[in-house]
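Hi support team,

I submitted a single chain yesterday and got back a structure, but I'm not sure I'm reading the token output correctly. Could someone confirm the output below corresponds to the sequence I sent? I've pasted both exactly as they appear in my results page.

Thanks,
R.
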Amino acid sequence: MQSTPTKPPFYLGIDLGGTKILAGVFDSQLKLIGTYKVSTKASRGPSGVLGRILRCIEDAIDECDLKMNQISAIGIGAPGSVNSGKGVVNFAPNLGWRGIPLAGNLSKKLNAPVFLGNDCSVSMLGVYHVELKSKPANALGLFIGTGIGGGLVIGGEPYRGFTGCAGEIGHMVIDRSGPLCGCGNRGCFEALASRNALFNSIRKAVEQGKKTQLHEILGRDLKDMRSGDLRKAIRRGDRLVNRLVREAAEAIGLAVSNLANVLGPEVVILGGGVIEALEHEMLPTIIRTARKHAMPGALTGVEIKASVLGDHAGITGAAYLARAELQAHRSKAHNTLHSSGNA
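Hi R., thanks for writing in. Yes, this is the structure output for that exact sequence:
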């Protein structure tokens, strides 16, 4: 995607996932100018992924006919537990990372300020401020991709909790005897309804002799399966894929009902690559299941819908983070200088 660059400043948002890296260039009003996407290739380790992030950034900027020195700040959303203040990814199970100083490493390579947040909390920033225009006082976001994460807005403010891990809804244990999750627990929500969970369930069923249209689409080994392939299979009448997608949607609906009981949101937003690819196949089941299992009144008047930003929620939120943090840092520096001058 590319449109004519407008006047600076420009901000760059990065959505780092277990499957893909998406970078987007935005103008000062957070209008998206251009994007670039590469696969993550997490198996190459932190240094390999860092190189791919840098490549994605360079190509995104080049696609917009800009130079790196025209980018005022960079925001990045990374999966798992992060320390935003220190710019460190504490633990990202889908990447196999622990204690990676991602913001600092990128800032050194790019000679630009880099601000880090949890990917789903960052996505919720984009949804809340750009899509919802900062209006609902309380909002809940569920983002279904390689893994599952959440974003919370309470009282009009992003909520990360005392430890900074609020919103890690993907690691709610739903079934203690369920499949092993990347975090080390069994039966996490993520292990039951994420893209990886869906793909694993399909492959396991095929190993047990179940038939699927996916073989005609992808070949015998189902090696390069994507969420969009599941949609194609369902539309060809694939009973196996339809059942497993429906079961994942029911799990998501149950999660929505439980979270609505606890948090009382005004709106529930569903996003991520799985929802973008399978919105029409999953959303009705999610809504029906959520309303069936929520406490009476918990979802009365509450809108449950897919994000219109789709796969761009992460980069939009990351650009918002970059702009907000840069402005906050500049304001703090100005106030410090002003105070020193009056001393």
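A quick pointer for reading it: The first helix runs from residue 45 to 63. Let us know if anything else looks off.

Best,
Support desk
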